[in-house]
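Example record

One chain of 229 residues, shown exactly as stored in the release files.
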Amino acid sequence: MNTRVKTTMITLSFLFGTPLASFGQENIIETSTEFSMEYLNVIVRQTKNSEEGTCKAKIFANMGVWMMEDITLKLEAVGGSYGVSTPSEVLGHVVITSQGSYNGSTIVIDDTGHIFKTIGGEVYYDEEANLILNIYLSDFSGISVFNLEDHSILMETIDFGARPISIHKAFGDRYFIKAEYDENTGDYPIWEIELEFGMMTLTDLSSQEINDSNMLSHVPLEDLNCECK
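Predicted structure tokens for this chain:
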């Protein structure tokens, strides 16, 4: 499957020969990124207003000359990084994440150009089960699980009592979260994701059982690089 990424940046200084300062827009920068996968072409356009500390992103999914769907995000420069990531290919889908406004999200685009959105920001995936599992990058702890077969959200959980660090698969087809408490106690509680019941359960497992050896594949945050440039 062929992919292509192309990024262009335009600093908007003049409009039809007139300085944008005349319009109060001298601090606006626009970035456009294109990502191709077979017949699907995804365009991410971000407009940054450095004076206001805001980022407006619009994502287009096109099939050939036809625009299938689009989605608009308005992000503020609060909660760490802010902006939209470079698109990645994950299990035959285009995956984009956003950060900012204390509200991370994961956007999934299928090979027909349909767009789906769930809470997230940090992406893990299970190729055997065809699932994407996300850590919610927010002031609230949380996770979401997205089924790539029928494009449904299997679970969204917010503020379950600990902050997720990583997502694991062990003891067959069971999923676990290695987490930490906001109080920095030095403990790393292990929570189980119970998809059948749509809930999280605190276990008595430790980092000896849930560790790097059974961590799910993931897209590193540094590769996602959510930045409104």
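Notes: The chain has a mean pLDDT of 86.
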